[in-house]
Design a protein that fits this description.
The complex is a heterotrimer.
Chain A lengths: L18 H21 L2 E3 L4 E3 L3 H8 L1 H33 L5 H9 L6 H11 L6 H8 L11 H29 L3 H9 L4 H12 L1 H17 L2 H6 L11 H11 L2 H32 L1
Antiparallel strand pairs in A: 1-2
Helix pairs in contact in A: 1-13, 2-3, 2-13, 3-7, 3-10, 3-12, 7-10, 10-13, 12-13
Chain B lengths: L4 H29 L2 H4 L12 H47 L4 H14 L4 H11 L5 H24 L4 H9 L4 H12 L1 H17 L2 H6 L8 H11 L4 H31 L6
Chain C lengths: L3 E10 L2 E11 L4 E5 L6 H9 L6 E6 L2 E2 L10 E4 L11 H11 L4 H14 L15 H14 L4 E5 L7 H18 L2 E6 L2 H7 L2 E6 L2 E6 L1 H6 L4 H6 L6 E3 L1 H7 L3 E4 L4 E4 L5 E10 L3 E8 L3 E8 L9 E6 L5 E3 L2
Parallel strand pairs in C: 3-8, 3-9, 6-7, 7-8
Antiparallel strand pairs in C: 1-2, 1-4, 4-5, 9-10, 11-12, 12-18, 13-17, 14-15, 14-17, 15-16
Helix pairs in contact in C: 2-3, 2-4, 3-4
Classes of the chains: A mainly alpha, B mainly alpha, C alpha+beta.
Chain lengths: 292, 275, 327
């Protein structure tokens, strides 16, 4: 006789399946993020922490080079996100059309996404050399005086953004290609019968229906842009001077200088920036979707 | 006239793409095989001497074969991280998909944070030091697992929803215990996603520069990207060797891309387009 | 083989009672069919017997053992799912032998048992194939093979033929019936198809809204339905059921007469009606009459019945074939 043993319904999945991942994730990601809020309010040398209130943040918002980094971060993020979205969509439209060597072109456009950022950074730095770099040499051959891409303070950030675009547009294109493929050709055929031009079809059918992909691209590239470090560090180290510093590079520089509290404050600011931008953006996207 | 339109636009596109996207890679290749003096001219001319092997060996020999050590470390970190990542995130993806528990909401929020939030680096360094994991491969592996868990788990969760629950129940009747159901029924059926995950994560971890920069400074446990970065400051005038290094760093992802093109594309767009 | 006993089985999801106090006894070797409309709880009941759903209260006994809280694999049951639930990444042989390999039986034993099951079901030439290379009927058999190999006390079938097309269904019905005769196993079979129920069951359990309407052999249910629900469920076309004034006159709450128990005449009879529509099926014809006092009446007649739409007809019930229900 089997003794009745009341037990909770066996689901094929025990709760402890969460555990290993939760432990690693909690210890190495969530915990430091949580403690960063505390440490950002201190002057810290990793062993002792002296509470100084909002002093670090006050510094961030008053010292010119720190404020500059905040501004740069926003400019960089918006610029790269906008460019990637627009160029990604245009490239995707081109690469879903009936053109010669389409498969090859898709591969070529996407490959930079997979390559080492440092390698790309170094390569383009060399290519952007004011006198010997092949970009300015080529421009010179056309009679245009090429600027100091990375040596001109007002141009440096922009130049890095262009390289970021070069490297990252392939992913945006890929996502858009998938989004475009999901649009049934029936819509276009119906529009053609209605007499819509190619441009009208793009505006009235493609753009609205590719929205999920657009949202993804904008969101992902904004987050990436706000957090961007590798490329900027490889190409300019935040220079010349501080003209291309962003919050991520400031975090590193302050860390290197031993100002751990300030560095961590930078982390908190970056955290806040992302939340402040992405959350309203997501809500706005979702509300518009509901309204539609 | 319509018939050649694809070829005309295609041709123009090809030309444009070639210049914009292929040229930089050709530049890398050309620079990598030149002599030191030629390379320092930074021009797009064909090399007069083809010094591929010489430069290759010189790069590997630099700083006591540091590049060799770096390749070993990078590979080790990548393989270890990805292996752990796959199992752990498949487990979480499975339970989030199959079992209704309030922890799911908690996990969901936590995972989305991981996709968005920048890790707090200095506190993490402090933590690693306290655990004796700073500047170690073990520490780096755990960091990579933690930082890539979000993407990996969400990938698995959406795929597991395509495995019918009937299979779980049939296995239950057959006498399988939960971990047996997971390893003998579910995990094998996750093969396509696992391949994609492995490929995408491997490339990301191999190319990662920022995290080794913070958590693996020093030359004992140097990684490939760090070596390249250090090389830049070390050999300021040896552009040929610098570019040979870049070439060597670019090759592994290229090989992976050639063989796993389909999986990479699938992985990158997975879950990205929520129609 | 063994008995199955359900005692006051209840299942509630929060405040919603899905299964309401069911008592049932199944004798060893019986083929019992749970039948009923969608949502009546038949699948839930089956899953509770299997152990995939927990009973809110009540007991389940298999072969005398109380298995109410036992794990599915320890109840002595085997189940054939509607979707077959074959493991896509395993071969037929591995699918059938999976339970045995989990129990760490020696390889020789597993191979022997798999072979035996495969022979019973004519699957021996398919042992190395994967499910996706099999036809619907073959997959069915593999699912059954997996169940056989468990040597269960009770076989459970959850609408196994729903995914097959009509001709295959007829064939598989036969195979399952023959299997039952051969193994003499206790089988519980869930379906919404009354043809399957009537042709395969020793005993039919008609479920409605979480409760048992009636239990009996197919012909018992046909001849003596206890309630209008059962009467309308068994038999095709459905029994004509009338309430209201007509029923009152007959001295009951609902009056019923089966289409096949009505005789038609062009001259005289109990009820007069107008023939609205006639469906000729070859051997039979189904006639739809509009009868003023009753409403619509469906009559089954011989295939060559000479009446045409618009005709005025008289319908008379066969003696003793009328049903009077008190609800």
């Amino acid at each position: 006789m089997v003794q009745p043993r009341p037990r909770s319904q066996k689901s094929p999945c025990p709760l402890w399946f969460f555990l290993p991942a939760a432990v690693i994730y909690g210890v190495f990601f969530l915990a430091p993020t949580a403690t960063s809020f505390w440490y950002s309010l201190t002057r810290w040398d990793l062993t002792t922490a002296e509470f100084i209130g909002l002093e670090n943040f006050r510094q961030f918002f008053s010292e010119p080079f720190l404020v500059q980094s905040l501004v740069n971060t926003l400019i960089y993020a918006v610029m790269t996100s906008g460019l990637k979205t627009v160029c990604g969509l245009l490239l995707a439209v081109l690469l879903t059309g009936n053109i010669f060597a389409r498969g090859f072109l898709r591969t070529v456009v996407f490959f930079p996404v997979l390559v080492s950022t440092i390698g790309i950074g170094i390569t383009f730095t060399v290519m952007m050399h004011p006198t010997k770099g092949i970009i300015n040499v080529a421009l010179g051959a056309l009679g245009i005086a090429g600027p100091g891409w990375l040596t001109n303070p007002s141009l440096a950030l922009f130049s890095v953004a262009l390289v970021d675009l070069w490297k990252g547009v392939g992913l945006a294109t890929l996502i858009f290609i998938a989004g475009l493929a999901a649009i049934s050709t029936d819509y276009y055929e119906a529009a053609r019968i209605d007499g819509a031009t190619r441009f009208q079809q793009f505006r009235r059918i493609t753009l609205p229906l590719v929205r999920p992909a657009t949202i993804t691209v904008v969101t992902l590239s904004l987050i990436g842009g706000l957090r961007s470090f590798d490329l900027i560090w490889a190409m300019t180290r935040g220079g010349p001077g501080f003209s291309s510093d962003v919050v991520a590079s400031v975090i590193y520089k302050q860390y290197q200088a031993g100002f751990y509290g300030l560095s961590t404050a930078g982390n908190v600011i970056l955290f806040a920036l992302i939340v402040a931008i992405i959350l309203p953006l997501s809500l706005w996207f979702n509300r518009r979707e509901v309204a539609q | 006239m319509r018939h050649i339109r694809p070829y005309v636009t295609g041709g123009i596109a090809l030309l444009f793409a070639a210049v914009v996207f292929i040229l930089p890679f050709m530049f890398i290749l050309i620079q990598a095989v030149k002599s030191k003096s030629e390379a320092s001219r930074l021009s797009f001319s064909l090399p007069q001497e083809w010094l591929f092997w010489q430069n290759l060996i010189a790069v590997f020999k630099a700083r006591d074969y540091q590049l060799l050590l770096a390749y070993f470390n990078s590979t080790l970190i990548t393989v270890a991280s990805v292996s752990i990542l796959v199992i752990l995130s498949a487990m979480v993806g499975y339970i989030m998909q199959r079992r209704r528990t309030p922890w799911n909401a908690v996990a969901q929020i936590a995972l989305f944070m991981g996709l968005m939030m920048p890790p707090a680096v200095v506190p993490t360094i402090g933590l690693l030091q306290d655990l004796g994991l700073f500047k170690t491969i073990h520490g780096m592996v755990l960091i990579q697992v933690a930082y890539n868990l979000s993407f990996s788990t969400l990938l698995y969760r959406s795929f597991i929803s395509t495995i019918p629950r009937d299979l779980d129940e049939a296995a239950l009747i057959d006498g399988a215990k939960p971990w047996q159901i997971f390893f003998r029924v579910i995990l094998p059926l996750l093969k396509p996603v696992t391949v994609t995950n492995i490929v995408v994560q491997s490339i990301a971890i191999f190319n990662d520069f920022t995290n080794p920069l913070y958590y693996l400074p020093g030359k004992e446990n140097v990684t490939v990207q760090l070596t390249l970065y250090n090389f830049q400051s070390m050999y300021t005038s040896q552009y040929n060797l610098l570019f040979m290094n870049i070439l060597l760093v670019t090759i592994p992802p290229l090989i992976v891309f050639i063989f796993f093109n389909r999986q990479i594309v699938a992985g990158m767009t997975a879950g990205a387009v929520k129609g | 083989m063994t008995d199955l006993a359900l005692k006051q089985i209840r299942k509630a999801f929060g405040a919603l009672e899905v299964i309401k106090g069911i008592d049932l006894d199944v004798r060893s070797g019986e083929f019992v069919v749970f039948v009923g409309p969608s949502g009546c709880g038949k699948s839930t009941l089956l899953r509770m017997i299997a152990g995939l759903e927990e009973a809110t209260s009540g007991t389940i006994e298999i072969g005398g053992d109380d298995v109410t809280y036992a794990e599915p694999s320890k109840r002595g049951i085997a189940m054939v799912f509607q979707s077959y639930a074959l493991y896509p990444h395993m071969t037929v042989a591995e699918n059938i032998g999976f339970g045995l390999s989990l129990a760490r039986r020696p390889k020789a034993e597993i191979a022997a048992k798999v072979q035996a099951a495969a022979e019973t079901l004519q699957l021996t030439h398919l042992l190395d194939r994967k499910p996706k290379a099999l036809s619907g009927g073959q997959r069915q058999r593999v699912a059954i093979g997996r169940a056989i190999v468990r040597d269960p006390k009770v076989f459970l079938f959850d609408e196994p033929l729903s995914n097959l097309d009509a001709s295959l269904r007829a064939q598989m019905r036969l195979e399952i019936a023959e299997l039952h005769a051969r193994l003499k196993a206790t089988m519980i079979y869930v379906t919404h198809d009354q043809t399957e129920a009537m042709t395969m069951a020793d005993k039919i359990v008609v479920l409605n809204g979480g409760g048992i309407e009636q239990v009996g052999s197919p012909m018992e249910l046909y001849r003596n339905p206890a309630t209008p629900f059962v009467a309308g469920f068994i038999g095709s076309p459905k029994m004509n059921l009338y309430g209201g004034a007509v029923a009152e006159r007959m001295g009951c709450a609902t009056y019923g007469i089966r289409p096949e128990h009505i005789r038609l005449s062009g001259e005289a009879g109990t009820w007069q009606g107008r023939l609205r529509h006639i469906e000729r099926l070859g051997a039979d014809a189904i006639l739809y009459l509009d009868v003023p006092e009753l409403g619509e009446m469906i009559v089954r007649a011989e295939g060559e019945t000479p009446f045409a739409p618009g005709a005025t007809l008289w319908a008379s019930p066969i003696d003793g074939a009328e049903h009077k229900f008190s609800a």
